[in-house]
């Protein structure tokens, strides 16, 4: 298994556009690592630079202890799967899978046997004589993966390989891809703009913006404690509530009411931004006895999410959203009170947008 180490990696395109800005990053051996961010954040450029399809302007790329910064793509021992699969339309499935082995000069019996073996592992044994035009999107995706697996590379580099699939197939492919990576144990870097994919698949996620990493952590870390308001807005199927707040001792005045401030939070200014995910915000149909000053307001919008409902509440001149079970859905126009689940309220600096630290009570 191979460790990837990027040091001071910079990529500037003609015209002065900086796609990667002095980026330092380490991907551990055997890790499933996601590069996540909006269009234009630099994630695909980073993957292509790892693969050697783009040349770094400065900085170094190391695979294990080997400096591959200026090494040709074919000599980096990586396999790449693209968004459009890049299958050869005139070749059969078995020939598509075995083609990289042909380029490496392997004998036909060996490459055919390897292609058929990998095809069986990926459930393609009945399709080996077909051409890509006779395959579904999910089958083409598996052929592209089989071609990468047949090479037995040191690294997998995936550039949004699931984005062309419909919703049902994407869910199936997600589970399949994670299981395959675990079985093979190959270090994998996966580019996606879909935060649900990154949260479901990755061991760790690098959230990127403007060629830099805004947060690096496990899916649980980046979801539960976003490092700044950019990450907080980007991660989560329902956007985090980010509302102006004022610090008053151990309390936060928010949306016309009061929340207890997170224990030990250190604020340099009385004016901050309070952050709470809708999943962690509770609704009450009467004023809670343990939080008499909780924000209160009127239910304005109900959005059915299936087993849950996203409820938007207008209160104190702000809108707050909460996710509730389908059997706890309030009536439109009803009055409700809101309280955060213990330990789930976050506080961000107004100027930098960064998550405010907590002081250790024992320190």
Automatic annotation (TrEMBL):
SMART domains: AAA
SUPFAM superfamilies referenced in this protein's UniProt entry, alphabetically: MOP-like, P-loop containing nucleoside triphosphate hydrolases
Pfam families reported for this sequence: ABC_tran, TOBE_2
Domain ABC transporter residue range list: 4-235
Gene Ontology molecular function, alphabetical: ABC-type transporter activity; ATP binding; ATP hydrolysis activity
CC per GO annotation: ATP-binding cassette (ABC) transporter complex, substrate-binding subunit-containing
Keyword terms, alphabetized: ATP-binding, Cell membrane, Membrane, Nucleotide-binding, Sugar transport, Translocase, Transport
Record-linked InterPro entries: AAA+_ATPase, ABC_transporter-like_ATP-bd, ABC_transporter-like_CS, ABC_transpr_MalK/UgpC-like, Mo/tungstate-bd_C_term_dom, NA-bd_OB-fold, P-loop_NTPase, Transp-assoc_OB_typ2
Protein name: Multiple sugar transport system ATP-binding protein
